[in-house]
Amino acid sequence: MNELDYRWRGLFRAIATIPRGRTRKAVYAGHCEGEPLVPTQALSAVSLSLFAITGIALFLFGHPRLGALIALVLTHSFRFFIEFLRADNRGAGAISPYQWMSLCSIPVVGGIFVFPANELATANLKQGLLALGTPGVVVFLLGTALGVFLYPGRSRVTFAKLRFGVRDN
Q1: What is the pLDDT of residues 131-161, one digit of tens each?
Q2: How far apart are CA 101 and CA 115, in angstroms?
Q3: What is the 3-state secondary structure (H, E, C) of 70-93?
Q4: How would you write the chain as a 3-class SS string?
Q5: Facing residues of 17 across strands?
Q6: Would you say 99 and 93 are in contact if contact means Cβ atoms under 8 Å apart?
Q7: Global pTM?
Q8: What gap in Å lies between CA 27 and CA 89, rounded to an integer?
Q9: Which residues pair with 37 in a beta bridge?
């Protein structure tokens, strides 16, 4: 956070986090133990959730294309700017590959308005929620959750040991 312009430091000082412990990525990859950092993960979680809620609200009120456009443009724009606040190595360029992907996605998403499409009158929330309980959807969601847990949910950098024993009193 010390590398930020003084105006940005003042804005983020109140919510800064200080990583401690060898297993924190900011410590082992960024060598930032004990330094105040901008909580990019927390900012992302809150901001992206608000963008999603905005998109869902517009969808439910009969504006699906506008909801998608606003939600996707906001998320990609946010991703571009939040990367500047991370302590990660961004490679040789000033803009990381993730930032390039975000920038390139914005005009692609803008194509939603170029091609004509039938607008939905209104979304049927009750019918949609009932569909979530069908066996095919449940199996699909469980399979997806299992896949996410087994592959990307596994760290290839840190590890843990679990030991059991009997204490002699």
Answers
A1: 888 999 999 999 999 988 887 766 777 777 8
A2: 22
A3: HHHHHHHHHHHHHHHHCCCCCCCC
A4: CCCCCHHHHHHHHHHCECCCCCCCHHHHCCCCCCCCECCHHHHHHHHHHHHHHHHHHHHHCCCHHHHHHHHHHHHHHHHHHHHHHCCCCCCCCCCCHHHHHHHHHHHHHHCCCCCCCCCCCCCCHHHHHHHHCCHHHHHHHHHHHHHHHHCCCCCCCCCCCCCCCCCCC
A5: 37
A6: no
A7: 0.67
A8: 13
A9: 17
